[in-house]
Amino acid sequence: MSRWMRLWRRMSTFLPPLLMVLLAAFSWWVAREAMHAGHGPGGAPEPPQKPDYFLHDFHTSSFNARGQLTAQLSGAAMQHIPGNNTVHITAPVLRVLSPQGVMTTAQAQNGISNADASNVQLLGDAVVHRSVPGAPELTVRSDFLNIFPNAQRLSSNRPTTVQRGATVFSGGSLEMNGLDGTFAMQGKVSGKLAGAGG
Question: If you compute the radius of gyration of the chain from its CA atoms, what whole number of angstroms results?
Answer without folding.
Answer: 18
